[in-house]
Amino acid sequence: MLELRDVTAGYVRKAPVFRGVSLTVRPGQAVGLLGPSGCGKSTLARVAALLHHPDAGTLVVDGTPVRRWRHRAPRAQRTAFGVVFQQARLSADPRLTLTDLIAEPLRATGRREGVGGRVTELAATVGLTADLLGRRPHEVSDGQLQRACLARALVLRPRWLVCDEMTAMLDASTTAALVRVVEDYRAETGAGLLAVGHDRVLLDRWCDRTVEWHTLTGTPTGTPTGTPTGP
């Protein structure tokens, strides 16, 4: 289970983006987090994915409280998550080919054996043809790059997926294709999903339940707070 308990977080300690937020995602469950741009939901997603240390509160992953975040987190907790951000170009190293982008988590965790086969498998899964894999981010479209970023998120076979506005900059056909990949992965593995977005129709169709941001924070809908994007 993924549990956020009474979490307060922000980027300036005396001016948190939100206070006292609690949210639970069960294994195999898809939870949508709905809210307008800038409300703070992306910050919560980053806390949930171990990418941002909260000011207060507790994050529990599979029954174990998280004590450290980002690269200081234990490998078992860190690699339990796959994350896809809204702006693929901010989350992708422009120097890497798509092959290296997808393989990046494998190499970073010392899992070099079988990299080629795993990349080829995932490229086919997300709809990337072989001729695209040798290209760099500036040589592919936004949709093709986001497909590669989704493949990167799945490469370690995570138990939890966090999709932060994953489809916000994509056309309808690419959106449908990537959502289908995520759902096929969840059906196969039983992974849990936290999907952040501002499109109620998409979240309601995609997720088992949709939680509105203002019900978590008690703030009026549309109150901006300003949150960063990218890793």
UniProtKB/TrEMBL annotation:
| Domain ABC transporter positions | 2-231
Looking up InterPro entries in the UniProt record yields: AAA+_ATPase, ABC_transp_ATP-bind, ABC_transporter-like_ATP-bd, P-loop_NTPase
Q: Which UniProt keywords apply?
A: ATP-binding, Nucleotide-binding, Transport
Domain of life of the organism encoding this protein: Bacteria
Coiled-coil residues are none
Q: Name the Gene Ontology molecular function terms of this record.
A: ATP binding
One Pfam family name from the record?
ABC_tran
| ATP-binding among keywords | yes
- Matching PANTHER family: ATPASE COMPONENT OF ABC-TYPE TRANSPORT SYSTEM, TRANSPORT ATP-BINDING PROTEIN
Its protein name is ABC transporter ATP-binding protein
